[in-house]
Design goal:
The chain is built from 11 helices and 17 strands. With 579 residues, it is an alpha+beta fold. Among the domains are: 113 residues, no CATH class; 266 residues, Endonuclease/exonuclease/phosphatase (Deoxyribonuclease I, Chain A). Strands 1-16-17-2-3-5-4 form a 7-stranded mixed β-sheet. Strands 6-7-8-9-15-12 form a 6-stranded mixed β-sheet, with helices on one face. Strands 10-11 form a two-stranded antiparallel ribbon. Strand 13 and strand 14 form a beta hairpin. The longest helix has 19 residues. The protein is globular and about 70 Å long. The N and C termini lie far apart (54 Å). About 30% of the residues have low confidence. The chain binds adenosine-2',3'-vanadate. The site of adenosine-2',3'-vanadate has 15 residues, from loops. The site of adenosine-2',3'-vanadate (KL2) has 15 residues, from loops.
Length: 579
């Protein structure tokens, strides 16, 4: 019997085959890997790339120490057949003036897409590994061994039709549009904020979007995930125009974006959003990855009180050796007639690696500590919090449970079970007690604590202190009361909602969590706070299930230009009673 406690994975009426259950990495009864490999054969026809010796690759220089990015010491790595950007850098693909500019697919590119490689080389996309961490073949890529995998890719994406693809975005054959309905939860007072965000009387209604827009760099690095796509839909200019159109049409008052590529942000995304009336903040990942998190908000609806970029990389803390980041903003609602409390908006993209739940929890602890600091009021309570992002964890997983229940008992919990991405995770590593060291300066309650004032404090005293602070117990807590704006199952069918979908997976990993006010539709009575310090969920843009995504050829497609769908919610904030 497991010693750790968290929400179970069972849900009446929902089969364990559903993607929410880490299905893509489950093994039992999976069809053989060749079903997936047949994709590759389709795409990577014998031809130019594989029969031609790639030219010498000029590696990018990195300003970061080789200790953190040892791969940069290896010389030189030939471009992988799935790594279109490396082919671009190598000169095989048409080169562009800016190294991070979009990939322009040409007929030539698709014609010369090479045959399936004998073995896909693993490239760390997440930065350096912790000491002691075993060589990680990415689980996503380890299916060639036949031990995992194909079960995870949605059935309908396993049989990509053969045939030639058009060579320019103009000739994309029509794909039906995904239908997403607005779910009104505000009964009986249903008020969506005006799209124009015009001045309104108390209360203050505002909308929040969370959207992983899929950086072009990651798209190129993980091109094998997009084999099911019609190549022109992957072109950045096509995707950018669709994404901006969607952002403009949805017109959220606050948007939390992930995988925002820095050059695209500076040159295209920020100028476009500014012209739509948004104030934009951005935090790039540390290390060499060019993407990061952005939080933007309408200038006419909020003013910026403070902005707090959060880096999870901490020198000397082995668990915090990855380059993921978060961004926390404190915003003041603009309303001339009433006074409202500030709102704390946080955005993050946690580590992907399904096996490193320990790192994900440590990253989350850093973010929660920052939010607690920013949102804390003089009386010790917190202003309303909206926490958005791509948490690379599924609903019901221990990490998800920790966010929602403010507590996690993790005794005996394998690190590979923390995010729920994998059903049959390899590796038996168990979370250590404590997960992160006291020296990080973050308590087991996910609050910053001042480091021991006296460096002379003896070891024994340190141990006693650690015990008092809970560092010897397999349990962590946080002080924010957070509720998920989505229920993760479709109302009608009970099927899991999908927030991200590509040829290897279809699951929920994106969330909008918030401080629920008393009487909010989603909150348990025991975890809701006073109306002026909490938010009431008025509505949300419904997500869809796998069946709906099948009809539009998965993601990205002609109309939906990321491998994630945007989450969109509307909240109500009540005026302060001390007005
Ligand atoms: O799952 V994601 O996509 O939230 O949409 O977050 C990560 C993955 C993102 C940033 O690291 O890049 C994607 N297999 C599949 N996807 C990967 C892999 C991988 N090995 N590495 C990174 N990503």
């Amino acid at each position: 019997m497991s010693r750790y406690r968290y929400v179970n994975y069972d849900r009446p009426g929902v089969s364990s085959e559903h993607p929410m259950f880490g299905r893509y990495l489950s093994t039992a009864g999976s069809p053989p890997a060749r079903t997936v490999l047949s994709h590759w054969r389709h795409w990577y026809q014998p031809g130019y790339l594989w029969s031609t010796r790639p030219p010498h690759v000029q590696h990018r220089s990195t300003p970061f120490s080789s200790a953190r990015h040892p791969s940069y010491n290896r010389q030189p790595r030939p471009p992988g057949p799935y790594n279109w950007s490396s082919w671009r850098h190598s000169g095989v693909l048409p080169h562009q003036t800016h190294p991070r500019q979009s990939v322009h697919f040409s007929g030539g590119l698709m014609d010369c897409s090479a045959k399936e490689p004998p073995q896909k080389r693993r490239k760390s996309t997440e930065g350096e590994r912790s000491p002691g961490e075993r060589s990680q073949r990415s689980p996503e890529r380890s299916f060639t061994k036949g031990t995992r995998g194909p079960k995870g890719s949605p059935e309908w994406l396993r049989n990509v039709p053969t045939g030639k693809f058009p060579s320019s975005p103009k000739s994309i054959p029509g794909t039906p549009e995904l239908r997403r309905i607005w779910e009104d939860l505000s009964c009986p007072r249903n008020a969506r904020p005006s799209a124009k965000g015009g001045k309104q009387k108390c209360p203050f209604d505002f909308s929040v979007m969370s959207y992983n827009i899929l950086s072009q760099d990651l798209l190129c690095d993980n091109a094998y995930l997009y084999r099911h796509c019609n190549p022109p839909v992957l072109d950045w200019q096509h995707r950018f125009s669709n994404i901006i159109k969607e952002l403009e049409q949805r017109s959220a008052d606050i948007m939390c974006l992930q995988e925002v590529q820095e050059d695209h942000y500076k040159e295209q995304i920020k100028p476009s959003l500014e012209s739509l009336g948004y104030h934009c903040e951005f935090k790039r990942r540390t290390g060499v990855k060019p993407d990061g998190c952005a939080v933007v908000f309408k200038r006419e609806r909020f003013s910026l009180v403070s902005c707090h970029p959060v880096e999870y990389f901490r020198r000397g803390v082995p668990l915090l050796d990855r380059d993921n980041v978060g961004l926390v903003l404190l915003l003041r609602p603009i309303d001339s007639s009433c006074s409202f409390t500030n709102v704390c908006v946080a955005n993050t993209h946690l580590l992907y690696n399904p096996r490193r739940g320990d790192i994900k929890l440590a990253q989350l602890a850093v973010l929660l500590a920052e939010i607690s600091k920013v949102a804390q009021l003089p009386d010790g309570s917190f202003c309303p919090v909206v926490l958005c992002g791509d948490f690379n964890s599924v609903p019901g997983s221990p990490l998800y449970h920790f966010i929602k229940e403010s507590n996690l008992e993790y005794d005996g919990l394998p690190t590979a079970k923390v995010s729920g991405q994998e059903e049959n995770a390899r590796g038996q590593r168990i979370l250590t007690v404590p997960i992160w060291p006291k020296s990080l300066g973050i308590s087991q309650k996910c609050q910053f604590e001042s480091p021991s004032k006296d460096p002379e404090v003896k070891d024994l005293e340190q141990e006693a202190l650690a015990e008092i602070d809970g560092f010897t117990k397999p349990s962590i807590q946080h002080s924010l009361q957070l509720t998920s704006a989505y229920s993760h199952y479709l109302k009608e069918s009970g099927h899991p909602e999908i927030t991200t979908c590509h040829s290897r997976t279809a699951i929920t990993v994106d969330y909008i969590f918030y401080t629920a006010a008393m009487g909010d539709v989603m909150a348990h009575p025991e975890c809701s706070v006073s109306p002026e310090m909490g938010l009431q969920l008025l509505g949300r843009l419904a997500l869809v299930g796998e069946a709906e995504l099948e009809k539009v050829n998965g993601l990205p497609n002609q109309h939906n230009s990321s491998d994630h769908l945007p989450l969109l919610t509307c909240f109500r904030l009540h005026p302060r009673t001390d007005n």
